[in-house]
Amino acid sequence: MLTQAPRGTRDVLPTESYRWQYLEARMRTAAAEAGFREVRTPVFEHTELFARGVGDTTDIVQKEMYTFKDKGDRSITLKPEGTAGAVRAFLESNLYAEPLPCKMYYLSAPIFRYEAPQAGRLREHHQFGMECFGAKDATADAELILLAYRLLSGLGVSNLSVNINSIGCPNCRPKYNDALRAYLREHLDDLCEDCKNRYERNPLRVLDCKQAKCQAVVVQAPILLDYLCDECREHFVELQSCLQAMNIPYQVNHKIVRGLDYYTKTVFELITKTENGNLTVCGGGRYDHLVEQLGGPDIPAVGFGMGLERVLVLLDGEGVVIPKPELYDVFVTYMGEHRLDAFRLVQSLREAGLKADMDHCSRSLKAQFKYANKTGSPVTATIGDEEAASGTVKLRNMTSREEVTVPVAEAAETIRNMLK
């Protein structure tokens, strides 16, 4: 157990971290183009934040949170999602007093949920999330959907479709809840135990249940879109107009309610078809009352979350090859007595902006070349007796095997030309 990672977690090894860095760079670029700035929140928060924000009737709060008491007897929870922490930071730092909207994103944020591990969704996984505070128009919803769609398409994820729905607001949802309860009352015996409990407290959660018998029951359930108030209906129409204007393929899916209680009006998912069926790669929506619910002013907001592990799994399935950077530009080899000369050369090459290294294991010169070849270094720089005496270095192109001897002062520029 000592040398085995806990179930539902995995290491990102040096041989694959470049894939993450590539993905993160693309996500940062997409966020910057739309004016989103990074926020970094703690890995853990007070448990009450998630109980009040996410909702105590959700599976996340009831079953999946990693909660413990700290040494001060305070209830602490490893964050099971990113939005609540972003709202807390927004409030604590009084960002609502600055010009709105406030656009922020978080990247590679660790998310913890105690659930059965699956492809692209581990007990500790990492999210790219975007949150926009203070924008009430549907153009803000469409902006996020479009940003996520373009990002995933640009990375190479194919067969993408956007599924959207509106789950109303506190003005119109109670009427729908009454209609849904009336329908479910006739089918209580067919529901799972969890949904029997949800029936009274939050019947909307029944629509999100993944158990087959509950899914069969809700097939004929009332449709929430039929109960929207004028404001919610107009917002949903505007959202569709924005997506149509940008030629984004979408479909209205009245079964989407998302697994968090804070959503209002728009909810959406980006889904891709795989050989194992449909897979949700991004999900989000509008949460116009969460800021107020957590003690702040009445400020609308909208956001989404996207799992990095899941995106990487999809890219692998699509056969997308992420470019692997060279580990070194140049590897310095040396005769045993010239180790200090090699060390100086490595440092000067690094100061010139080149990726350089040398042998630190007292290998023979032949073994150094063999190691340099294994690292894939395109150029080697060798210091032997003649080079040390004349203040030069011998550079070799490891592909063409061409060699050239130049003064040490000219080594960096010559290597750059060789790399071109």
Describe the protein.
- The protein has 420 residues and is of the alpha+beta class.
- It folds into 3 domains: 17-172 and 228-317, BirA Bifunctional Protein, domain 2, CATH 3.30.930.10; 174-212, no CATH class; 330-419, Anticodon-binding domain (Rossmann fold, 3-Layer(aba) Sandwich), CATH 3.40.50.800.
- The protein contains 15 helices and 16 strands.
- The chain has helices spanning 17-33, 47-53, 59-64, 83-92, 138-155, 173-185, 193-201, 212-218, 230-245, 290-293, 308-317, 339-351, 365-375, 385-390, 411-419, and strands spanning 37-38, 44-46, 66-69, 75-78, 102-112, 124-133, 160-166, 250-252, 264-274, 277-286, 301-307, 330-334, 356-358, 379-383, 392-397, 403-407.
- The strands form 3 sheets. It has an 8-stranded mixed sheet with strand order 1-5-6-11-10-9-7-8.
- α5 runs parallel beside α9 (230-245).
- The two termini are 48 Å apart.
How many domain modules? Answer: 3
CATH class wording of the largest domain: Alpha Beta
Morphology: elongated
Please mark out the parts with pLDDT under 50 across 5 or more consecutive residues, or reply none: none
Question: Averaged pLDDT, please?
Answer: 93
Number of helices: 15
Radius of gyration: 28 Å
Strand tally, please? 16
Strand content: 15-25%
Biggest beta-sheet profile: 8 strands, mixed
Distance between the termini: 48 Å
Examine the secondary-structure arrangement and name the CATH architecture of the largest domain: 2-Layer Sandwich
Q: How are the elements arranged and paired?
A:
Elements lengths: L16 H17 L3 E2 L5 E3 H7 L5 H6 L1 E4 L5 E4 L4 H10 L9 E11 L11 E10 L4 H18 L4 E7 L6 H13 L7 H9 L10 H7 L11 H16 L4 E3 L11 E11 L2 E10 L3 H4 L7 E7 H10 L12 E5 L4 H13 L4 E3 L6 H11 L3 E5 L1 H6 L1 E6 L5 E5 L3 H9 L1
Parallel strand pairs: 1-5, 7-8, 12-13, 12-14
Antiparallel strand pairs: 2-4, 3-4, 5-6, 6-11, 7-9, 9-10, 10-11, 14-15, 15-16
Helix pairs in contact: 5-9
